[in-house]
Write a structure and sequence with these properties.
This protein is α+β, with helices and mostly antiparallel strands. Helix content is about 45%, strand content about 20%.
């Protein structure tokens, strides 16, 4: 009998120890899970607004996620799930702060709303990398420095290469002066080293179109753009199928049409060759470059060509469901403005601040210039627009200027100064308007062409400076008459 009670006592002890051990393990698991979460505290001195926005930036902007946070007494504390690691924009009072947040971080952001850039400090776990980003912005991304860097694109190809290399070496030296203190810091610094290589190649991708743009306005000499081995070598070190780069917000440039012609074909920029390569190798290409190519390049003008490939993507198992839903939403949106769709009507404001119902006029082709006074390329195109209007003054073309200006007075002063005898309207809601959302307008200039039957002819029509603008307008007129 005593033996039975002894055994029963031992079983109770074992059960107690087991429950205690399991509870301990459960607590440890919860602590580990908690350590994977991201905690952020924002403290603002002299707050001028009660709203703060946190935007997670993705390699394709359609995947960006925005959280709107409300401040209380100039402070807000929030936490995020461990899957939310990556680059962020912290937006406050029309200012943007760059952040990199990673699972396990617990970062305190403090600044004075009257002088955000010069007062911002980071502390806590994971603050080292964010202090680096702040320093990088102060040294290399001020308006003056960015204007200086923009001038690199005025230079000859060899001079551009030397200046750009020196620019990224300076950033690399700054990066080496910081020592990672946490695992998340190490993740960032390793990623940043690779990003510098990608950014260097990104500038090379932009060199030709930007030089061509400045050549017209600054009378620069012609250039030979054929890439040699020195120019191409950094591209060979990139891996566009590296899924760890998907948190890099400029990664879309390497899944866009500019990258493959250089890397795969090693010859001149060629969208035709690239498109052919994508279509012929559609089932072989890994999902980041494939998905990015489609999402970045899917436009109303090529919807019919790319739709079969979009349908194929939606059947692939290696594409995340969230990405599929973004693609389906974009397809649905673009289908409404594809070539041949009816041009919808909108309400705009005219120069007298009256509401105007803007719609198609029968038997007249429409060439719509979507622009803004703050847009330098728009201003450069304006003299060409005047010439285009003059060349077609005796033809059935209706020229329309639609401004996305947030400042109505700037718009009015400019159109009164230019006195161009065309229709002028402004969109009060700017890029948040129904017009901008319908035509996927997230930047200017953009040109839209509508035929005389009220059907959309192109949502990405050539600029006035392009010889293609004349030929496409004549083709549109011809189709209208027939």
């Amino acid at each position: 009998m005593n033996y039975f009670y002894i055994m029963k006592f031992r079983l109770w002890i074992l059960a107690f120890i087991s429950v205690g051990f399991l509870t301990f393990c459960n607590i440890k698991d919860k602590e580990k899970e908690k350590n994977k979460e991201i905690f952020v505290k924002v403290v603002i001195k002299n707050p001028s607004d009660s709203i703060l926005k946190l935007i997670q930036k993705n390699f394709v902007h359609d995947l960006d996620e925005t959280d709107t946070l409300k401040l209380k007494n100039g402070m807000v504390v929030f936490q995020m799930n461990h899957s939310k690691g990556g680059f962020y924009d912290l937006e406050y009072a029309n200012e943007t702060i760059d952040l990199f947040l990673w699972p396990g971080d617990s970062v305190i952001v403090e600044f004075d709303a009257n002088r955000i850039d010069s007062s911002i400090t980071f502390s806590g776990k994971g603050s080292v990398k964010n202090n680096f980003l702040s320093k990088e912005n102060l040294l290399f991304r001020t308006p003056e420095k960015l204007i200086e860097k923009e001038k690199y694109f005025y230079k000859s190809k060899d001079s551009f290469l030397l200046l750009t290399q020196d620019y990224y070496r300076c950033i690399e030296r700054l990066l080496q002066s910081y020592k990672p203190e946490t695992f998340s810091d190490s993740v960032f610094f390793n990623l940043k080293k690779r990003i510098l290589k990608y950014d260097f190649c990104k500038d090379k991708i932009f060199y030709k179109p930007r030089y061509e743009f400045f050549k017209k306005t600054l009378n620069l000499p012609d250039q030979n753009y054929d890439p040699d081995e020195t120019w191409l070598k950094p591209f060979t070190e990139l891996n566009v199928d590296d899924t760890t780069m998907l948190i890099y917000y400029n990664f879309s440039y390497f899944v866009n049409y500019d990258y493959i012609p250089l890397y795969v074909f090693k010859d001149k920029y060629s969208l035709d060759k690239h498109t052919k390569y994508i279509f012929e190798n559609f089932k072989k290409i890994k999902y980041p470059i494939l998905y990015g190519f489609i999402l970045v390049n899917l436009k109303a003008d090529n919807f019919d060509d790319l739709k079969p490939n979009c349908d194929t993507i939606l059947l692939r198992n290696d594409i995340p469901e969230k990405w599929k839903s973004v693609l389906m939403a974009l397809m649905k949106k673009i289908e409404k403005i594809r070539k041949g769709a009816d041009f919808p009507s909108f309400t705009f404001k005219d120069s007298s601040n009256n509401d105007v119902l803007f719609k198609h006029n029968p038997n007249k082709v429409m060439y719509i210039d979507v622009w803004a006074t703050f847009c330098k390329p728009c201003m450069v195109e304006w003299p060409n627009y005047e010439k285009l209007v003059s060349r077609f003054k005796d033809k059935p073309v209706r020229f329309v200027s639609i401004s996305m200006d947030p400042n109505r007075e700037s718009w009015l002063n400019y159109i009164r100064k230019k006195k161009l005898p065309i229709e002028h309207y402004i969109v009060p809601e700017n890029f948040d308007s129904e017009f901008a959302k319908t035509f996927c307008i997230d930047g200017v200039p953009q040109y839209i062409m509508v035929d005389g039957k009220g059907k959309i002819f192109s949502t990405d029509a050539p600029r006035p400076s392009s010889t293609k603008a004349d030929s496409l307008l004549n083709l549109c007129i011809k189709n209208t008459v027939q």
